[in-house]
Prior knowledge:
With about 450 residues, this protein is α/β, with parallel strands linked by helices.
Amino acid sequence: xxxxxxxxxxxxxxxxxxxxxxxxxxxxxxxxxxxxxxxxxxxxxxxxxxxxxxxxxxxxxxxxxxxxxxxxxxxxxxxxxxxxxxxxxxxxxxxxxxxxxxxxxxxxxxxxxxxxxxxxxxxxxxxxxxxxxxxxxxxxxxxxxxxxxxxxxxxxxxxxxxxxxxxxxxxxxxxxxxxxxxxxxxxxxxxxxxxxxxxxxxxxxxxxxxxxxxxxxxxxxxxxxxxxxxxxxxxxxxxxxxxxxxxxxxxxxxxxxxxxxxxxxxxxxxxxxxxxxxxxxxxxxxxxxxxxxxxxxxxxxxxxxxxxxxxxxxxxxxxxxxxxxxxxxxxxxxxxxxxxxxxxxxxxxxxxxxxxxxxxxxxxxxxxxxxxxxxxxxxxxxxxxxxxxxxxxxxxxxxxxxxxxxxxxxxxxxxxxxxxxxxxxxxxxxxxxxxxxx
Length: 438
């Protein structure tokens, strides 16, 4: 069977740095931090008191342009979430719906929906943890007033696949509908598996991405109890510092990102704007430890090698790696060693971690970082790793350029985007520049 080519035609982002794609991306290029003191709850008794929160988020605002003028029952979509549904829809789902609406509008698919059967469109939104906030609030109600106070909407609010389910309903996608759940690699798996489905001819279009919102007492408290989070509470914007010798843990973020993936000939025939082509997808497993990566980084190395091999590109053709780069003492070094081992002969390579600005979006991390990788190619710019003041000597030994503190203007034609998660799961995605497609 000849595999089909897959391209990216739409991008939607909601993040701690902005409510849409371009506002987020402009701040990433500027090296702005979205990390601050937690305001959503009182974290003063917790060791970690900072996060990348999305403030003043309102998914009920009217969309810039209504969608689906010829959609189900002729109904238009004028908002991602109606005021009525907002009261019973979890935050991570609302974030997903907003990102999906932006990506779908960006793709221009509305103009050809009459030529695209709904059953040829799939949806896969990766989520790591679901809605901890609704678990917490419903448990409090149960403990205070018993079973009758548990909300009838509780289960649809918390289960991870309802971001994909609600997105599928909103956009009338009747093909494959599921959620990849693999911790911090969830949305990278979502993109990779959606890519595979289109390659094999199981769909022509996929709405793929990720969503997460677990900045809650249990979410922050749980990771803090593991000593995984930074406790640099007096300097939030400087707390996420991948590869810096003074790093002390990651910072939680929240948000959602959606990519519209299409079979290449369909996108070309309809005259779609093509951001990028997906050329490689590398999934692997460390099979080592539930939270710690292999010391030699070989699991991540194999993921990158698989993606590179599938792409047919040489190591010296990769211009940029958007690293997993969480700002943890061990993980950063293992990944740096793996990148260096694979791409050691590439003297012009740039590496950076955009988590230094957004924090770690857990299940949504892979999707937002894939989007940043694609936008880096579009605008010929490598985003920086901010707060990298004192490079860890072990990172320095790799010889990699971690793009410290300022974006770099350069031609970017091919990128790797890495996502690694608890349980030893690894994903690497390889994209090439849309303007180079023929």
